[in-house]
What we know:
Blueprint: H1 2-15, E1 17-22, E2 31-36, H2 47-52, E3 54-59, E4 68-71, H3 72-78, H4 80-86, E5 89-93, E6 102-108, E7 111-118, H5 126-131, E8 143-144, H6 152-170, E9 181-187, E10 198-204, H7 216-233
Antiparallel strand pairs: 1-2, 1-5, 2-3, 3-4, 6-7, 6-9, 7-8, 9-10
Amino acid sequence: MREFTERFPGRLDQRRVLVLKQGRGTGGAGVWKVELTGPRFGGESDGRSRLDAVVRVQHAETKDSATAEMPLAEFLERCRGYFAWSGFLVDQPFQERLAEGMIRAYFVHDEVVGFCHQWPTGLLSGDQAGDRGGENPPAAHVMEDPDTGVYQPLRKTLETEWVPQMTRLLELDSSALPVLWDADFLYGPPTGPGLENYVLCEINVSAVWPYPQQAAANIAQAALARVRENIASRG
């Protein structure tokens, strides 16, 4: 909590709007959009004046686009309980293209086994959230094959760059990755005509349900192989 109080105001001053989330949770619990409403603090601002600054906050769990304004110090204190529950907090830049949806990639170890384009609304503005339910609302969550054409650039990046870099950074063998896990990606600023830029939102390893039905055989085979390895390691 001490580190959070010391560091978060400066990061908010730099970005003006951040997404703050507890270390573990589901359904938008403990996920906030925090926006600095006034001018930047500036180099002369001391710690007290930073904590007195007014912020606009929006909780993703309510999913009603309602916001509230309060002193930053009050909001920071409201977050104290998250440290007891999840151990830490993570802040991320808010992605302006959130209304375009989120792509969930499902993995068996280091292999992509499916995708699902989802439409989170918890941190959208009132107008954006209303658009989701207009005359042409987005389709319901549909599980899609790993070879679905529109996702192939992302799949290639995940399997040849992103996952290998992650395992090297964490000093993990690919077989040590979960039998089933997923990673959520948001759309970042486009990098060029026809080229998408994806930003990691979060990784899920303990509540991956539902998952693509077409991945069931891969999951079963990987789970059976893990059981056999465990039996063999015991002699």
